[in-house]
């Protein structure tokens, strides 16, 4: 969400927060007026109140008090109905009705000496506070004019025996004092509200910025409470966990049972670093980090998820940089003497005076010279390869063309390589050149380790979409002798081989190329015999911003 939208939301929220207190104040003012009007009516009609109520003009008092009660009730109906009028307009109308009615009631009860004029001070004060002083001066002026007009009317008609212009002037002064005080208070209140709005806007902007950063971090972040309920999960975490159908409020167990077990185990084992894990079969290998929250570490936990391939790739880049410098030295220090040995071996072969036993030794020299040269070539190949240039392409047509070329290059009998990709529309994204090199290594590995005639060899290439992660996969399955269980953990290590003539670098290079392209390469034992190497691709779509 853009920060501008957040700013508008804060302003809208601020208006709602200002409107809510105004509604409450207006409601309280309505009930106050209803109580005052009702009490005046009850006291007058029951004859149990002060005798001054309506004693000068009972008929006028009766008419005005009924109208006053009706106006108050009408204002209450407008207050609770959907009305177009603003708070300021409604408040002004209420205060104006009070000024008119209370002035008439005061006149019917003996004028200013009745004391009813003080009720106007309460109405003006309440109205000024509710409207933030918007109409305070106007309300005070109207009240003063009405009071003076009432006194002048009574004087001209000799309604009362004495005049009270002094009291009327003092009452008017009181009204203006209340209005001035209300405006000062309103100014301070507006300043406080403006400051509060700005602070709230700053906090909202900061919160939105933090949320944006968290949501677009490559590191997956999950916040859980003490009950392992997810309170926050960014897009990277959701993506790394295989895009589970969970969200805020779901349990961590639903998102990833393995991650929930790791959190529990980490807490029980006094914060020992957890082992890497795969949240779903065929998914990425992840490394989790945990940090407790709250006072005394009792406020839940923050979980950090890292793609192990990313960490491995960074380490690999450093390793390859060192290897590149090393291979330059190897090429200079070993390759030249090796070339001299090979040249000497060729000259010895051409000599007619070499006995047969010595020729066998020359063959051994030739074989091992080629083997050492192959090792050097493989190491140089590792150090020279550049960064991957990923492209998106259909898997089935690409593999169909590749298998045809491979069978022709290696002179394989027809039918040795079988291909099955479902669905046909399976798309992958990787570096085609390096992907081809991976396949060549794996297929040649199957051929080299096959100890029967080539016609019996079978290489089955299957591909499709995994149900667990939703990403593409390719299996290379052969009917060879397979790999002994005790060798599985070492098979991807450099220079590990079970053949006397092998270099031990083929699978290592394939694994390194897969990691460079963010692919997974795993060995899957085949119960019926043979080997299966699975290449897994990341799921397409919904990638976090990088």
From TrEMBL:
It catalyses: ATP + protein L-histidine = ADP + protein N-phospho-L-histidine. Keywords: Membrane, Phosphoprotein, Transmembrane, Transmembrane helix. Residues 329-541 form the Histidine kinase domain. It comes from the Bacteria. GO terms for molecular function: phosphorelay sensor kinase activity. SUPFAM superfamilies: ATPase domain of HSP90 chaperone/DNA topoisomerase II/histidine kinase, Homodimeric domain of signal transducing histidine kinase. It holds the Pfam family 6TM_PilS. Its EC number is 2.7.13.3. This is histidine kinase.
């Amino acid at each position: 969400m853009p920060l501008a939208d957040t700013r508008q939301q804060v302003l809208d929220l601020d208006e709602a927060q200002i409107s809510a207190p105004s509604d409450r104040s207006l409601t309280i003012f309505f009930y106050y007026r209803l109580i005052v009007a009702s009490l005046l009516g009850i006291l007058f009609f029951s004859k149990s109140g002060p005798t001054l109520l309506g004693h000068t003009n009972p008929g006028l008092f009766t008419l005005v008090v009924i109208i006053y009660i009706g106006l108050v009730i009408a204002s209450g109906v407008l207050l609770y109905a959907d009305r177009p009028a603003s708070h300021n307009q409604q408040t002004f109308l209420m205060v104006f009705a009070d000024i008119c009615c209370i002035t008439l009631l005061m006149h019917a009860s003996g004028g200013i000496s009745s004391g009813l004029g003080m009720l106007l001070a309460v109405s003006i004060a309440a109205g000024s506070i509710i409207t933030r002083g918007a109409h305070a001066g106007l309300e005070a002026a109207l009240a003063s004019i009405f009071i003076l007009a009432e006194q002048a009317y009574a004087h001209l008609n000799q309604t009362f025996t004495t005049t009270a212009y002094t009291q009327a002037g003092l009452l008017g002064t009181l009204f203006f004092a209340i209005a001035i005080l209300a405006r000062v208070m309103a100014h301070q209140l507006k300043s406080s509200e403006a400051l509060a709005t700005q602070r709230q806007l700053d906090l909202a902007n900061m919160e939105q910025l933090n949320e944006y950063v968290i949501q677009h971090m490559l590191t997956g972040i999950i916040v859980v409470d003490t009950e392992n309920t997810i309170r926050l999960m960014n897009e990277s975490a959701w993506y790394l966990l295989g895009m589970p159908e969970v969200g805020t409020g779901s349990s961590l167990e639903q998102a990833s049972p393995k991650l929930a077990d790791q959190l529990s185990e980490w807490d029980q084992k006094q914060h020992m670093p957890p082992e890497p894990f795969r949240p779903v079969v065929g998914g990425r290998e992840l490394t989790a980090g945990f940090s407790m929250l709250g006072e005394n570490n009792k406020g839940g936990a923050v979980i950090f998820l890292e793609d192990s391939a990313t960490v491995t790739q960074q380490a690999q880049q450093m390793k390859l940089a060192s290897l590149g410098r090393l291979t330059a030295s190897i090429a200079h220090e070993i390759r030249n003497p090796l070339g001299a040995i090979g040249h000497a071996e060729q000259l010895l072969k051409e000599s007619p005076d070499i006995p047969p036993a010595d020729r066998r030794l020359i063959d051994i020299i030739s074989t091992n010279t080629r083997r050492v040269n192959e090792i050097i070539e493989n190491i140089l190949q590792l150090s020279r390869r550049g960064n991957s240039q990923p492209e998106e392409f259909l898997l089935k047509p690409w593999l169909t063309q590749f298998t045809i070329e491979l069978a022709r290059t290696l002179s394989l009998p027809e039918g040795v390589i079988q291909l099955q990709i479902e669905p046909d529309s399976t798309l992958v994204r990787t570096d085609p050149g390096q992907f081809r090199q991976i396949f060549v290594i794996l297929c040649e590995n199957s051929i080299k380790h096959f100890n029967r005639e080539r016609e019996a060899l079978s290489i089955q290439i299957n591909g499709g979409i995994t149900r667990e992660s939703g990403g593409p996969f390719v299996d290379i399955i052969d009917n060879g002798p397979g790999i002994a269980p005790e060798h599985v953990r070492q098979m991807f290590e450099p220079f590990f081989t079970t053949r006397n003539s092998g270099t031990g670098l083929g699978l290592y290079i394939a694994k390194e190329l897969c990691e460079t392209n963010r692919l997974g390469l795993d060995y899957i034992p085949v119960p019926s015999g043979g080997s299966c190497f699975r290449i897994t691709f990341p799921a397409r779509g919904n990638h976090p911003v990088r």
